[in-house]
Design a protein that fits this description.
About 50% of the residues lie in helices and about 15% in strands. The chain is α/β, with parallel strands linked by helices. The chain has 2 domains: about 230 residues, Spore Coat Polysaccharide Biosynthesis Protein SpsA, Chain A (Alpha-Beta Complex), CATH 3.90.550; about 70 residues. The strands form 2 sheets. Strands 9-7-8-6-3-4-5-10 form an 8-stranded mixed β-sheet, with helices on both faces. Helix 9 packs antiparallel against helix 10. The longest helix is centred in the C-terminal third of the chain and has 34 residues. The chain is elongated, with a radius of gyration of 26 Å. The protein starts with a strand and ends with a strand. The structure holds uridine-5'-diphosphate (UDP) and magnesium ion.
Length: about 325
Amino acid sequence: MPAVIGHDAKGKAPLLAPFSLMPEISVILPFHNESAGVHRLLHRLYPVLGQLGLSYEIICVDDGSTDNTFASLVHERQFDQRLKIVRFARNFGKETALTCGLHLAKGDAAITMDSDLQHPPEVIPELVKKWREGFEIVYAARANRETDGRLRRILSRAFYAVFRTIADVPMPEGAGDFCLIGRKAVDAINALPERNRFMKGLTAWVGFKQGTVPFEVASRENGHTHWSFFRLIRFAFDGLSAFSTLPLRIWTWCGAAVSFAAIAYALYLILDTLIYGVSVPGYASLMVGILFLGGLQLLSLGVIGEYMARIFTEVKARPLYFVSERVGFE
Ligand code: UDP
Ligand code: MG
């Protein structure tokens, strides 16, 4: 229903807004160099949103694109004034773009999705249906990973298996950044102060009733993925370190295990010497011991360093992003 924004001169008939001032659905789209797909995406989105019969806004976050993305988005506003555009001062990353979208969303529910049409807009009605059934957070869970390369598929599986085991956050299989988040959960996520915005984790962590709807991931229509191998690895550790301290604590156990092994080996050496006398050669075992322990120590130091770097980012408490332009916001 459109919002009532006043009454006529006699104070009787309500004046309705051309569209609701407080939208019911906020669609949040992060864009980084996606100009080639802007038009196609939005024109697939409009009919779907139109059929929902709910008022909506579309919040496009231009995450420091260096191509025509921003101009294309502004151009698209002629077709639908409910398009709102924020332009970041530089590339702050997808998680930050989603965070900004959630800050700005006014709807009773926010829907976050990729802007490269890998997340088909046609799934939105199913998300909304499930939300109406009482689920506060509804994930569109990918039923397949065929669109990813082999290595990425294996690594993703491994990451989620590890994450679920050690992170103590119930993240559904295949859940990603295509999801519907109800107002209560949006407010909860917005209240989380951390700078490391691993959105999938934060969404799962806030709780509320969470459900899933399966969907088939489409192939990217234009351009290419922004996730290099090393960026993915860093992202994975961002996620793990934000939701688990096990990588930090595990070294206590490793240290204990190595110490026990060393004691056992020392006992063996003492007995061996008592029974068979001194046998000098020990070069190989010495080298193995030194290298193994050296490696273990550097590894554990590295892990501590990773956590420290993240603590450093948090204590600096810099703003998450800077906006250089806003179009369509009151
Ligand atoms: N994206 C972004 N900022 C970035 C990188 C990506 O906003 O720094 C957006 C990108 O435009 C797309 C979504 O995040 O809409 C997913 O990116 P991509 O398709 O590269 O990731 P993949 O689908 O390969 O996981
Ligand atoms: Mg993609």
